Amino acid sequence: MLDPHHHTALRIADQRWKYAAARAAAIRDQLGISETQWAQMLDVLIDQPEAEAAYPTLVRRLRRLREVRAGARVGLS
């Protein structure tokens, strides 16, 4: 079950930000964690079925992005 903290993290990920600093400020203000910690939290959240049930489009998009980035890292070696 997703707690309110997780819902907030996912809603932040779903927003389009004109400036990265604005997103970082929202993460700090709303969650009280760093952007790195937020990214790590998202990486775990997008593997949870509850997150996919609550935010299916977002979770699938984030999974695709993660796969592309992982593939790019593998291709660099």
Question: What's the short version?
Answer:
By secondary structure, the protein is an all-alpha fold. The protein has helices at 4-14, 20-31, 35-45, 49-54, 56-76.
Describe this protein's structure:
It is a single chain. The chain has 77 residues and is mainly α. It has one domain. Helix content is 79%, strand content 0%. It is built from five helices and no strands. Helix 1 (4-14) packs across helix 3 (35-45). The longest helix has 21 residues, at 56-76. The model has no long low-confidence stretch (mean pLDDT 93).
Q: How are the SSEs ordered, and which strands pair?
A:
Blueprint lengths: L3 H11 L5 H12 L3 H11 L3 H6 L1 H21 L1
Uncertain runs with pLDDT below 50, 5 residues or more? none
Helix content: over 70%
Which class best fits the helix and strand makeup?
mainly alpha
Number of strands: 0
Order of helices and strands: HHHHH
Q: What can be said about the biggest beta sheet?
A: none
> For the residues shown, what is the average pLDDT?
93
Shape assignment = globular
Number of helices: 5
Residue fraction in strands: under 5%
Determine Rg (CA atoms, Å).
Answer: 13 Å
How many separate domains make up the residues?
1
Distance between the termini: 38 Å
